[in-house]
Specification:
Elements: H1 6-9, E1 19-24, H2 28-38, E2 44-50, H3 53-63, E3 67-70, H4 77-88, E4 93-98, H5 103-112, E5 116-119, H6 124-132, H7 140-144, H8 148-156, H9 168-178
Parallel strand pairs: 1-2, 1-3, 3-4, 4-5
Helix pairs in contact: 3-4, 4-5, 5-8
Length: 179
């Protein structure tokens, strides 16, 4: 393939490559709705969809997308999927799009490596900003609501469980698991 050097290119405008996006949600109607909203964006390309976590991990491994938009899922399996996808796909950004305003899920998602936690009642501009963000230094309160500032603090300072609330045997088991 011939190379085009800047001096020979003249007025050819540089066009940023499209972001490759995979959508993951167990609810088909929500997934199709998000797809319909994103498909009109010139800088985004939907390269795959999945309705199960195992399919999402396989798609991420196979397609190597730039961004995965996913949900927490009822049993929290989306949280483990974030870790798995980020481990297998270098540079992957994960945006959680969920109906859950649960601060525990939000904290877990951000700790697992999600770049943003967006609730489904947010404006589409918030989702687009989260997808396009190059790093995780996003204005979390604008994305996910009042609990997000606390979630950012949680990722910076670990929470210590009160030691007095667990028995000696529970402490032994915990130490054994940690080791």
């Amino acid at each position: 393939m011939p190379r085009i050097f800047k001096a020979h290119a003249g007025n050819i405008a540089y066009r940023r490559p499209r972001l490759r996006v995979v959508l993951v949600d167990e609810r088909t109607i929500l997934r199709r709705g998000v797809r319909a909203m994103l498909i009109g964006e010139p800088d985004l390309e939907i390269v795959g969809e999945a309705n199960r976590v195992s399919d999402a991990i396989a798609l991420a491994r196979c397609l190597q997308p730039d961004v995965v938009v996913t949900d927490v899922f009822e049993n929290g399996s989306g949280i483990q999927a974030i870790r798995d996808m980020r481990r297998e796909c270098a540079g992957l950004r994960v945006v959680m799009l969920t109906g859950s305003r649960n601060q525990e899920w939000e904290r877990a998602a951000l700790t697992a490596g999600a770049h943003a936690y967006v609730t489904i009642d947010s404006p589409i501009e918030v989702l687009l900003r989260a997808i396009r963000a190059e790093n995780s230094d996003i204005n979390f309160p604008a994305i996910s609501g009042p609990g997000a500032a606390a979630a950012r603090d949680w990722t910076e300072t670990p929470i210590e469980a009160p030691a007095a609330e667990i028995s000696a045997r529970e402490r032994e088991v915990l130490i054994g698991v940690a080791l």
